[in-house]
């Protein structure tokens, strides 16, 4: 077995590799049910002739937040289809539990509310974060008070009322990386939340490095096809129980159809991430060697995201792509490109945006599963500012001396 991709034995007995979990976790009971595909349960309510027993079950849920035995009573408590996705994602992240939500932002909201309910409204966070996460923390919409700092300043920023430390690595949109183990150490007893949307558990499992809470916008790589919105938090069962109570009370549930699509998406996650990452690394290498590009951001960790700064007009590149789709979001089977200062990070104050490296010339590209030569040709024609079709010779430049290891492709950062 590939030991690198084996999951911690505490959570899987016997230990199965990540690629195996991706296609089997959350589906282990299907054969016994006489099924092959996971069933979709669209019920909003569940009949019961025993209301005394229901009262007891509701009391148990209200006091413990533990998952109910038997049918969910009402769809805002739980759902068997979304529960399969939660089981599978927890397996992939190596956590005891996972709790799903209607979107990544609903998931982050639930985490903040869960900590605030313990009287801990202060958050320490490292920029950049996804634009709306930055906004949710800073705008005071949930009464959160945030101290922004760099990784080295975390220990000093922690106060008695600090409930959470938040980092994204690689970060949206600069792909800046933080050392999770070092940051977790700085957090002491304060839980560290790592937004693992960009890396996915295929490339990085933050709990193995000391994070307590892992957040995903499931809308991105977990779904993987740009057709489902969701969020999920992977964590220990104690915190999951609080999150379930918050979710029940506030209602940001994942729809069962979305749960089904996310479970299906997980099956191909390792294959998609590895294939797209190989193309992204190659595009990053070629961009590094391209005189039209001022700077390329590509993580040491690898991954399918590439960001780059152009000397010319970034809006012209967005207007010029033909195969690549000019759209926000990421993690789909097709390649997307967007201008963070205009879209994904528009809601962040301009000064804060610039200070965290999100400049006006930065473009963020989510590399999909197209042939890398076709992607490069489209990028080249968009960068050249020529009309599509005007370029008659191959857009592919001569190979450069850069090596083939991901670290060597990084070039200028
Ligand atoms: C998109 C995104 C989110 C928000 O997720 P939604 O599903 O859009 O609500 C949070 N974090 C990161 C890193 C993201 O890219």
Automatic annotation (TrEMBL):
Record's signal peptide: none
GO molecular function, one term: transferase activity
SUPFAM superfamilies: PLP-dependent transferases (SSF53383)
Region (Disordered): 387-413
Pfam families documented for this protein: Cys_Met_Meta_PP (PF01053)
Cofactor(s) the protein needs: pyridoxal 5'-phosphate
Record key words, sorted: Pyridoxal phosphate, Transferase
InterPro entries: Cys/Met-Metab_PyrdxlP-dep_enz, PyrdxlP-dep_Trfase, PyrdxlP-dep_Trfase_major, PyrdxlP-dep_Trfase_small
Annotated PANTHER family: CYSTATHIONINE GAMMA-LYASE-RELATED, TRANS-SULFURATION ENZYME FAMILY MEMBER
Family note: Belongs to the trans-sulfuration enzymes family.
Protein name, entry field: PLP-dependent transferase
């Amino acid at each position: 077995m590939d030991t690198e991709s084996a999951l911690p034995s505490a959570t899987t007995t016997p230990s199965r590799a990540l690629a195996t979990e991706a296609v089997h976790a959350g589906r282990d009971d299907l054969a016994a049910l006489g099924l092959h595909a996971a069933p979709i349960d669209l019920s909003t309510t569940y009949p019961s002739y025993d209301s005394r027993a229901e009262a007891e079950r509701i009391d148990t849920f209200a006091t413990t937040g533990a998952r109910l035995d038997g049918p969910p009573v009402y769809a805002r408590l739980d759902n068997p289809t979304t529960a399969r996705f939660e089981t599978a994602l927890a397996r992939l992240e190596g956590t005891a539990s996972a709790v799903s939500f209607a979107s990544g932002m609903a998931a982050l909201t639930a985490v903040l509310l869960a900590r605030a309910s313990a009287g801990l409204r202060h958050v320490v966070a490292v920029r950049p974060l996804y634009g709306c996460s930055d906004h949710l923390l800073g705008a005071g919409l949930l009464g959160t008070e945030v101290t922004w700092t760099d990784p080295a300043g975390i220990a000093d920023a922690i106060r008695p009322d600090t409930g959470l430390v938040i980092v994204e690595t690689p970060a949206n949109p600069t792909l800046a990386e933080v050392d999770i183990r070092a940051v977790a150490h700085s957090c002491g007893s304060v839980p560290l939340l790592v937004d693992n949307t960009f890396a996915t558990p295929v490339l990085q499992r933050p709990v193995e490095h000391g994070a307590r809470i892992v957040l995903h916008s499931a809308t991105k790589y977990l779904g993987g096809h740009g057709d489902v919105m969701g969020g999920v938090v992977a964590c220990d069962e104690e915190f999951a129980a609080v999150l379930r109570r918050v979710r029940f009370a506030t209602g940001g549930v994942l729809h069962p159809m979305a749960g089904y699509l996310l479970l299906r998406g997980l099956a191909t996650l390792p294959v998609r991430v590895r294939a797209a990452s190989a193309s992204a690394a190659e595009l990053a290498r070629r961009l590094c060697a391209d005189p039209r590009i001022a700077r390329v951001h590509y993580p040491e960790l690898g991954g399918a995201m590439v960001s780059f700064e152009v000397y010319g007009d970034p809006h012209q590149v967005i207007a010029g792509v033909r195969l690549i789709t000019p759209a926000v979001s990421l993690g789909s089977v097709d390649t997307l490109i967007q201008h963070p200062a205009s879209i994904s990070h528009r809601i962040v104050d301009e000064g804060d945006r610039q200070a965290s490296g999100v400049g006006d010339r930065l473009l963020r590209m989510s590399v999909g599963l197209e042939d890398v030569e076709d992607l490069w040709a489209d990028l080249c024609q968009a960068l050249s500012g020529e009309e599509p079709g005007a370029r008659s010779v191959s857009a592919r430049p001569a190979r450069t001396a850069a090596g083939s290891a991901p670290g060597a492709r990084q070039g200028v950062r």
